[in-house]
Amino acid sequence: MKNLIDILDLSVDEINELIDTANDIIANPEKYREKCRYKKLATLFFEPSTRTRLSFEAAMMELGGNVLGFSEAASSSAAKGESVADTITVVSGYADIIAMRHPKEGAPVIAASKSLVPIINAGDGGHHHPTQTLTDLLTISREKGRLDNMTVGLCGDLKFGRTVHSLIAAMSRYKGIKFVLISPEELKVPRYVKETYIKSKDISYEQTESLDEAIDKLDILYMTRVQRERFFNEEDYIRLKDSYILTPEKLKSAKEDLCILHPLPRVNEISTAVDSDSRACYFEQARCGKFIRMALILKLLEVK
Fold it and tell me: What's the predicted TM-score (pTM) here?
């Protein structure tokens, strides 16, 4: 039985296979309507989510399956003090596959050790968010026609942003990638992410505090929210939250085929005036999330 805890649980070939399946689902939705008939997905969300939870649920429904679960810890027995291990032991007897989000790093590893069915990590604290990364990779491959030979700018909260850490890990395996890491000093990429995925592979990268100076060289711009919930003090959050706001003005020097991504939700780091720009791909990115999760469910359930 295979689980997906970290994007590196999947080989490059497996990621490419998932992207191919997702593209086929987009092109031929009818072919997949009954693939998971009588199968059940449990969505166990101990932390709030809109896109991830709903896209998982939509994915299973479009495959003909059913969904059960909860959308916040307060509406589960966790509110009574039940452990993750016990919750998973019980729920894995009710469902065929489980998608779980949890605020504590490592919770999905515990879940996988207790589960009778495949576990998908739908985000654990500041650690990993592999299905968001699959979403990002599908979007990039559809927009660019490739996943290699490009300059990827990651902007905003690079310290706590689990989507950033997972994307760096994934893209470090493709040739010709260069990273531009754009953040305030306090929100720089953690050293372990840089050492493990960038420096150890001798990948070209630069760090800067200026989005304006970096934007003209980027093929991908991955914007992130400065996350209030990851800060220990409100003053730091208020001081840094508006560090990087993407506007039409800032895009004047960007490439015509720049691909602007954002894992969403957006607060104000991308002006709504950018939404009508042809380079804005973040809502299409959210749509792609449903299709790649459909492909992943099929893979983990070993449905042909």
Answer: 0.92
